[in-house]
Amino acid sequence: MGSDSQHQVLDAIHGRAHKGIPIWLINPMEWGLIDRLAGMPEGSYRREPEVTYRRMLLAAGSNMIDQWIPRNPLSMGSAGYEGDCPRTATTGAECVVLDGRVIREPDDVAAHLEEVVFPRLEGELAAESPVDAAGFLQREREVQAFLGEEMLKVPYGCLRFPALHYGAYGYGPYLMAYVLYPELMERHFRLQGELAARHNAAIAGAIVREGLPPLVRLDHDMADSRGMLVRTESLDELWFPHFVRAIEPALKAGLKLIWHCDGNLMQMVPRLLEVGLHGFQGFQYEDGMDYEAICGMKNRDGDDLIIVGGVSVTRTLPYGSPAEVKRELKWLVEHGPRNRLFLGASSSIAPGVPWENLRTLAEGLSYYRHAAELS
Fold this sequence. Notes:
alpha/beta
């Protein structure tokens, strides 16, 4: 049957009336603040990351967990990234090497796609390998069992769709290749989309059969603080048709899909709604994401959007005051959808956030989750 806490999450997903506002996970990255919020001795998170992280989430009132990342803060030092952290194609690697090939220029990207990536993807399509839906379900069950009845695990990272592969090639070489070789990009998106559609049909069917919560967040950065990484008109031609094909099995199965927003994604918001998405998570308000306008939009069925609204991790939490944290939470509630709103932080909370601000956030989230009446 599930607990009242889990029912609150399900009611919000389906847009049913309910008391209070369900709370999405928060992800503080500073180890000492995780310990402190969890009410555990200093050093607890480093010794017992899963146990401490779970207690921290409970202390913040979280009852909807999609991305279960208890060890994510261990990817940096206790106070932030340290000098010996490995560099990647998008974080300053001096040389990008893929399959023994050095990637420096857009021509290197094009050659790697044609000679390595396309044959690999076409081979996967021909092989028709079965999708490991059973393994996915088992992992979801294990996390839900660990979380307990106070929190509801929502599927995450289980659906696929075509991506911009700047993460593999680096921003410069890939984005220049995107402009110079649109036919190669379209082919890459098409192959990704065909594989994704097959995968998503199996996973969506498993979610429905198992009775998992029918909400999935799609996560891929396609904008920065200035706007879209590539022209939206080019996406209409090259990317959107294959994205639509990829997500179609999930939409037909009745899943509700929301999109993670980093940067200024406003140009893409209407198009994502037109193709069937149900809402958004993660708003960089200071970069131009118009929360109030987005919350006033409808999905293509005419229903309110599902919104995961968060206090800003790039402005309010690190640089604001406790009073400003409270005001931003109130603003999110006042302008969010009444029955389809979740609250949290806008993204991961980097080291350096004052304890008073994190404590105020946690207290505010717990207040709104349990509020019988919202003012």
